[in-house]
């Protein structure tokens, strides 16, 4: 590669490099054509060209898809992958290997989504075409229910039984800490009521959470201000692309940093007691 072209690529984003290679090279092709050749969904290739990496669920897929796409377009895959890591602020040594089984699983998920959307569209079209019959049927059903209520509930020999008052029981809501920076977006809100551990990114950085079986239950590049409510489950471990960019709160109290700025950390126990110990 000429020095002039190398300088030009260094100034481009990954998305610009991929789009230019696809649309301005000798083999101009549509994304749909390449998607079929690589067995990668069009939306993921479009996300790479737009730099919208959040649309791809796992960092390993972002890097793996980018490597395959770069090779197909005649670009240096290592250059493309390393530039993405720089753009996402993740550790340069992060692995990006994906297997055929991974691709097949991703494609199965996309097929299910597409089929579900198509089924929903077909159902809505059917209802719109036959709305009159649905309206008549709904009216008859409502009328029948009213008859049952009026005549069935007017019997004089029906003994009314006292109804015990219903006492609403709600899970205790754990108060949120006073974060060091404003919240941008919240993740894991289903864990919000019981989360003892809360993670907030004060700078952009990758965060991955694994269960005791090693399965990733949360993995994304968290932007500054993003918050994740950690499930109140034992045995969870975390890995951080930039440990110093992460605040960890335990029961509303800020825990010691798990690592220095711009350093990665793996197998960090998210046990509340472990997090609150003084860092060695």
Global structural class = alpha+beta
For the record, give the distance between the C-alpha atoms at the N and C termini, rounded to a whole number: 48 Å
**Overall domain count:** 3
Mean pLDDT rating: 82
Main beta-sheet strand count, sense and barrel state: 5 strands, mixed
Unreliable stretches: 154-158, 167-172
| Helical coverage, percent range | 40-55%
Q: What is the helix tally?
A: 9
* Strand arrangement, major sheet: 1-5-2-7-8
Gyration radius over CA? 27 Å
The geometry reads as: flat
Q: What percent strand?
A: 5-15%
Number of strands: 9
Q: How do the SSEs run, as a string of H and E?
A: HHHHHHHHEEEEEEEEEH
Q: What is the element layout, followed by pairings?
A:
Blueprint: H1 3-11, H2 14-24, H3 31-38, H4 42-50, H5 59-72, H6 77-88, H7 100-129, H8 131-152, E1 186-187, E2 197-201, E3 205-210, E4 216-222, E5 227-229, E6 237-240, E7 246-250, E8 253-254, E9 265-269, H9 272-276
Parallel strand pairs: 1-5
Antiparallel strand pairs: 2-5, 2-7, 3-4, 3-6, 6-9, 7-8
Helix pairs in contact: 2-4, 5-6
Overall description:
The structure is a single chain. This protein is of the alpha+beta class. Helices cover 43% and strands 14% of the residues. The chain has helices spanning 3-11, 14-24, 31-38, 42-50, 59-72, 77-88, 100-129, 131-152, 272-276, and strands at 186-187, 197-201, 205-210, 216-222, 227-229, 237-240, 246-250, 253-254, 265-269. The chain has a five-stranded mixed sheet. Strands 4-3-6-9 form a four-stranded antiparallel sheet. Helix 2 packs across helix 4 and helix 5 (59-72) packs antiparallel against helix 6 (77-88).
